[in-house]
Amino acid sequence: MYEGIKSPTIHSPRTIGEALSILNRTPDARLWAGGTYIMSRPDAYPGKDASAIIDLAGIPELKKITRNDRFVEIGAMVTASQLTNTGKLLLSDLMLDTLKSTASPLYRRQLTIGGTLCTPDIRLSLPTTLAVLESAAEVRYLQRSRIITRWIPIARLYGKNGALLMPPKSILSKIRISLDMPGFQRFRVIDHPMLAPRDSVLFAFQCQGTQGTLSRARFCFTYPTAGFHQSREMEALLSGQDLPLSPDKVRKFSSQLVMEIARMHPGVTPLQLERSRRLFAEVLHDIDVMAMEK
After folding, report:
1. What are phi and psi of 241, to 5 degrees?
2. Least packed by Cβ within 10 Å: which of 171, 232, 274, 282?
3. Which residue segment(s) compose the domain that 27 sits in?
4. Transmembrane ranges (predicted)?
């Protein structure tokens, strides 16, 4: 039964520099954060693949949460549960709703922020919302024995097809989220992204609606295995619109968006396109309701 199964070498670095050195010596090693993704894969440990594992749990720097007047910084090893419990005074409702939708309370205890962002072959809820919040990730890697630090917008961590674009042999160390939040925010998810990736749609939206005008519109659609979509053109088109929007405009914007998604992401299914159209129209309707209540 256990023939051919091998135990990997486990590395337990105490600093990011030490972890990067190990990663450069053993480029096929897996980074172990909470382990939720690795253990869900069919080739997970124990298995015939004896790739080394770099356990990041012993690096204190990756577990910190700090803030100032402008933003909050969250270490990559902070769990979704910790962030939900401690971030109620720091984070927007959009971020908290996203974290709560990610998994069950038990699963969120193991799910780390960095691990969620860096899954290699599937996009989940958190990147969707962080892209809308215009957050950034601190990424570190070695270059000629020196540690190089780069801040990369979350939206640029992924290609149009959702592929992870992290620099080779790098570690995401923390994320930075602005504390400047517009007044209207929504997060929606249809179907479980891990269990039904070809049907699931994840959607985050935020804007400001003041003095009868829509402004600062930002949104992102994520299709777990098919695409990661933001549209600066549509955001610019929405920003400056008078509120409430007419039913004709809601239909026009929703149809235009779906045509754009279909053109840019051929892997998105017809069901996902229709769900995207309905989600977008629903949010625009909610903005109208907000505007009429003021």
Report:
1. -70, 140
2. 232
3. 10-55
4. none
pTM: 0.89
Q: Give the whole-angstrom CA distance, residue 287 versus residue 237.
A: 15
Q: Where are the beta strands (DSSP E) in the chain?
A: 10-11, 30-32, 53-55, 65-67, 71-75, 136-143, 146-153, 171-178, 184-190, 201-210, 213-223, 227-229
Helix (H, G, I), strand (E, B) or coil at 138: strand
3-state secondary structure of 44: coil
Nearest to 8 by CA among 40, 54, 77: 54
What pLDDT tens digit does each residue of the chain (294 aa) get? 445 556 678 889 999 999 999 999 987 888 888 665 555 555 555 555 557 889 999 999 999 999 988 999 999 999 988 888 877 777 888 998 898 887 777 777 878 999 889 888 888 899 999 999 999 999 999 998 899 999 999 999 998 888 999 998 999 999 999 988 778 999 999 998 888 999 999 999 999 877 789 999 999 999 999 999 999 999 999 999 999 999 999 999 999 999 999 999 999 999 999 999 999 999 999 998 888 776
Domain shared by 17 and 70, yes or no: no
SS (H, E, C) 182-198: CCEEEEEEECCCCCCCC
Neighbours of 164 (CB within 10 A): 15
Copy the structure tokens of residue 237. Answer: 């088109």
- On the 0-12 / 13-18 / 19+ scale of CB atoms within 10 A, 216 is middle
Residue 46, preceding bond cis, omega within 30 degrees? Answer: yes
In this structure, are strands 30-32 and 53-55 parallel, antiparallel, or unpaired?
parallel
Evaluate whether 137 touches 157 at the Cβ level (below 8 Å). Answer: yes
**How many structural domains does the chain have?**
3
Domain assignment present for 127: yes
Asked if 88 and 165 sit in the same domain, the reply is yes
